[in-house]
Amino acid sequence: SLGSPFHPPMPTPNEAEKQHTGPEEADRPPSMSNHDVAPRAAPSRNPCCLCWCCCCSCSWNQERRRAWQASRESKLQPLSTCEACAPPSPEEVQSWAQSFDKLMHSPAGRSVFRAFLRTEYSEENMLFWLACEELKTEANQHVVDEKARLIYEDYVSILSPKEVSLDSRVREGINRKMQEPSAHTFDDAQLQIYTLMHRDSYPRFLSSPTYRALLLPEPPQSPSEA
Hints:
Radius of gyration: 32 Å
Helix content: 55-70%
Strand content: under 5%
Order of helices and strands: HHHHHHHHHHH
Shape: elongated
């Protein structure tokens, strides 16, 4: 029956909800229940990680990365300082032309060769080789995992500006080994980069002004210039 002017009819539950929430909120679709879960969008796989991760940095936080970077710098700094403050002897410089192995086994030789690679915009090859050498000295599996992922991100990822040139076979092998990283995960890649430096950069280094200047003794100062 119709309500009297003094006693308006009671609103229905839906009308009461609209009066309480207002017209804008009342027109919104009802919220989903616990059983109505929205489907999750499939994560886009980063092409640099392929098989072991969907994001290069999703398995460890930035704080752990910064801590490892500080540890890495503290380890590499003494080597760089030592190589810079110990000039090679003429005999040692001459031995670098005998074989690429002798050059790479010499701390001063690595330093000079790295400076030469920098002029050719291929310094990342030496940096990758050194990082692999450092990785092989680690025995702690936790440290190995983090260093391996950093090496992958810095030198293997196709998104890295320091990506080294590796063939598809070696890349596929690295992707499989990254499931369970070890100190020798990058051995094949390290050998390939070593060979690349040997065949490509090393001959140009031996004929470069940088190396020739080290072979020539400093000319004696004439009395007129004194």
